[in-house]
Amino acid sequence: MNPALQGLLTIIIGVGGCIGYFYLSNQFLDKVLFPAKGPQAGRNINRANLVRPWLFLFPALFALGLYLAYPVFETLRLSLTDRDLDGAFVGLSNYQQMFAEPKFWEALSNNMLWLIVVPAAATAFGLLAAQLTDRIKWGSVAKSLIFMPMAISFVGAAVIFKLVYDTRPVDQNQIGILNAVWLQFEGGAGSFLFLKVIPALILISFAGIVAYVGWIFVAPIANSRANGGGAGFVPLRLFVAAASLWLVYLSIGSLFGIFAFQFPYGEPQTWLTIPFWNSFFLMIVLIWIQTGFAMVILSAALRGIPEETIEAAIVDGANPLQVFFKIKVPQIMGTIVVVWTTITLVVLKVFDIVFAMSNGQWETQVLANYMYDKLFRADEWGVGSASAIIIMLLVSPILIWNVYNARKEMK
Amino acid sequence: MDNIAGSKSSLGWVVQISTILLVALWIFPTVGLLVSSFRTADQISTSGWWAALFPSEQTERFRVADPDDNRAARGDLFVVEGNFFEENDSSGEITSWGTSSRAVDAYQAGEVADLGDGETITINPDSSYVWSGTDEQISGRGQRVFVTAVSPPEFTTDNYNTILFSGTAGDNMTKAFFNTLTVTIPATVIPIVVAAFAAYALAWMDFPGRALLIAIIVGLLVVPLQLALIPLLSLHVGIGIGKGYLGTWLAHTGFGLPLAIYLLRNYMVGLPRDIIENAKVDGATDFQIFTKIILPLSFPALASFAIFQFLWTWNDLLVAKVFLIDSTGQTTVMTDQIVNLLGTRGGNWEILATAAFVSIAVPLVVFFAMQKYLVRGLLAGSVK
Question: Residue B1: inside a domain, yes or no?
């Protein structure tokens, strides 16, 4: 049968089936099982109302259970068994095998890099775009254009950026815009400014922000010593502080690297094969897509800030930067966290971009693509499932946090 | 801050310019692909797409028509007249020209070049030329010239012809286009129906365990679908669905449900309680309340989820690869075909750009047409 016809038929059967199910099961409940008449009418109505919610919920719960809840446990089981041994229980040997593979550690460390860079950059750009577009007349047009990549598939975006990163031999015209721009740099003062000074400034401000965030987390501990009270979440605070110290150390280290590095001026670069940095070129694709999302949400949050607080700050003599960082950002901190976690989830599942652009070659592997490799190319279900469980473990803090918030909200 | 005089004008310039820069940075990559899809393979490989927007200057080498066949006597001289662009199937407007490769711009258009001993050649801006000289000079091979011509931007829709209507099986996207559509529509419609009923129950019906169920759905929102691939594929094969549309529709339905229920429930909870209670007092059943009151009122939320699910299923690669595309390749979707093209025709940018743009076009239209609902859905789904 023609797939289009089959699709149409499925819509009719699916939608008709759903509506028919809901209608008939309600009719059955009211007319046959617990009819609302006769001697026990009152009791029957109550009983019918006890059952009815489950009629409404059944198809959804069934699909959720089968397609999301069951696979979590099944994947856990598969990760502990070996398919070649007829599904015999093998304990943690799949995990041991995975941990022994350098490709896994490469994927994990790349994923960690993605987890730091993409949410941070997308949120920062989104905040910047929201702040800028809220102040100008053609802001809504600008918003639409920045938001547009959201509609573009990861694969489409991969093609778009492959064209941006395209490389031609040195004696031909470059058709990738990045190489065309790159060849404009020839090692003069302009190159020094754009390739050394500006990256250095970005690194310094990044280190500054990280140090500041780290201090925000640690300060309550020091204060609580003075006040004699507990700060709460002490291990978490110390962990964040340690992580931020490490990031500051890394940034300072790379600061020297920037000035020491000799750029290969005048040579077209194959951007996706430069180890370590090629991951960043892949991240740019995701940042490009996610910034619009961050901008839309943060712009709504910025507009929700009470005018009085801002006016009061200006009257007290705050400059625009102070207003932004000390008045606006703290008030939308909750939204920033939501945006951050949402983008983090997207990052953990990122597959298409890496699959289409580099397929994990040249040290760009990430977990989701590693898992796909193991499951469908190497046919190692045990190791593939084990890596899926690792993704699940990375997601679970956000899962717990979301559920915790949802419960708190409903009370 | 906007309503305080003075602060706006001082920053206005900076804000305008930064916004223009940011927007330009964001649309540049897409524009590049769009422009490239309207250029020929030759144009793409010889110059960057940004060059296509301006008149291009090109130096070409031509040879005057063969004098033995084309010369005409004029007085005691022989001349060859003709037009380079007509003879060589080219176009543009000549600005300068030369007869030696070392000085290709020795003469301006319309000037007469003296080649010695009375032999002359003239080239006009429209590329018509006159070459004249003695019998001996106007013989053998035609005079070689180098012309520098400026041609206006040139675009073609041939690539779209190749991708949509002709081309080999690997290039033609029509089948993949309809396959994608076949996946997308049921995978968008069915979860909406299922989720709407569940959301109503979670929003307006009282039963034990409701709060727990909502918490579970919030939890399922973030479960990566990677975990579901192998277990569900084995399940589909086990119950006889195998790889195919049915399995894909079911998988998309399952993966889309948590967001659908979450969005719709949040929206339905906010509907006015009075309407629903009045309807109950008037004797309406839950089923009637749902179909006659709740569904019409929830249209914005239904629309925003529909857009999400549409974009997600249209743009999806992983689910299609795992649950749909079998070894025959008859059920390929557009994203998968583009990935294959990246592998097989990595250098053919005219094919790649056009194929990518065909797959991007539909979501972009939906996006710009229904942006309002998309934004509303995002806000409802994320901001708590």
Answer: no
User: Is A296 within 8 Å of chain B by CB?
Assistant: yes
Query: Within this chain, do residues A167 and A281 fall inside the same structural domain, yes or no?
Result: yes
Shared-domain flag, residues B122 and B264: no
Say yes or no: A131 and A238 in one domain.
Answer: no
Per residue in A105-140, pLDDT tens?
888 888 888 888 888 888 888 888 888 888 788 878
d(CA B174, CA B179) in angstroms, rounded, equals 9
Please spell the DSSP secondary structure of A299-328, one letter per residue.
Answer: HHHHHTS-HHHHHHHHHTT--HHHIIIIII
Quick one: DSSP state of residue A176? S
Domain check: are B276 and B368 in the same one?
A: yes
Both A196 and A333 in one domain: the answer is no
What pLDDT is recorded for position B379? 78
Does residue A92 form part of some domain?
Answer: no
Rounded distance, CA A74 to CA A79, Å? 9
pLDDT at B6: 44
Closest Cα in chain A, distance from residue B83 (Å): 29
**Alpha-carbon distance A145 to A147, whole Å?**
5
C-alpha to C-alpha distance for A122 and A287, rounded to whole angstroms: 5
Residue A74 lies in a domain: no
Number of domains observed in the structure of chain B: 3
- For residues A239 and A359, membership in a common domain is answered with no
- Does residue A113 belong to any structural domain of this protein? yes
Contacts of B185 in chain A (CB under 8 A): 7, 11
Same domain? B259 vs B142: no
Closest residue to A63, CB basis, from B19, B202, B257: B257
| A273, A197 Cβ separation under 8 angstroms | no
Predicted confidence at residue B4, as pLDDT, reads 47
- ipTM of the predicted structure? 0.79
Residues A222, A292, single domain; the answer is no
Between A197-211, B157-171, B250-264, the lowest mean confidence (pLDDT) is in B157-171
Mean pLDDT value across residues A26-35: 75
Is the Cβ pair A300, B36 closer than 8 Å?
A: no
Same domain? For B129 and B216 the reply is no
Whether residues A406 and A303 share a domain: the answer is: yes
Closest by alpha carbon to A255, among A322, A304, A201, A210?
A201
Interface test with B, best of A56, A344, A408 (most B CBs within 10 A): A56
Residues in contact with B159: Cβ distance below 8 Å, sequence separation at least 6, in sequence order: B37, B38, B39, B40, B350, B351, B353, B354
pLDDT digits (tens, 9 = 90+) for A219-266: 777 776 666 555 566 777 788 788 888 888 888 888 787 777 777 776
* Mean pLDDT, rounded, of chain B: 80
Within this chain, do residues A280 and A395 fall inside the same structural domain, yes or no?
A: yes
| pLDDT band at residue B5 under the 50/70/90 scheme | very low
Does one domain contain both A253 and A209?
yes
Query: Residue range A271-289: average pLDDT?
Result: 84
Domain extent, residue B47, equals 7-52
Mean pLDDT computed over B165-171: 69
Residue B80: C-alpha distances to residues A183, B141, B143, B251, B313 (Å): 45, 12, 10, 74, 65
Reported as a single tens digit per residue, the pLDDT across B333-373 is 888 888 888 877 767 787 888 888 888 888 889 888 888 88
- Residue B204 near residue B279, CB atoms below 8 Å: no
Q: Does one domain contain both B113 and B250?
A: no
In Å, how far are A274, B138, B180, B321 from A69, measured between CA atoms? 40, 88, 27, 22
Residues B242, B146 share a domain: no
Query: If you ran DSSP here, which 8-state letter would residue A232 be given?
Result: S
C-alpha distance from residue A384 to each of A84, A362, A378, B360 (Å): 14, 21, 9, 31
List chain A residues with CB under 8 Å of B378.
293, 296-297
| Total count of domains within chain A | 3
Q: Which domain holds residue A13?
A: 3-66
